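Researcher: Here's a chain I'd like modeled. Treat it as a single chain, no partners, no ligands.
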Amino acid sequence: MSLTLTAPLAEAPSTALAPREQEALRHIASGCTYLQTARLMGLSKHTVDAYLRRIRAKLGINTTAEMTRLAIALGM
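Model: Modeled as a single isolated chain. Structure tokens:
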């Protein structure tokens, strides 16, 4: 008898993000600046920056370009 160890299925990136983080990511991926995103979401620019820092930390990415690529790949 052979045992095969498999890694547990990782949570999908979009479900790892809070709804407001997903919304901020959608705005940034569509080309909005932090300030435009803040105005659209009714938040301060600093709050949007905090959301995007958390997104980068949760997903292990470093740049806005990587965030945009991921959002497009996820169909956001």
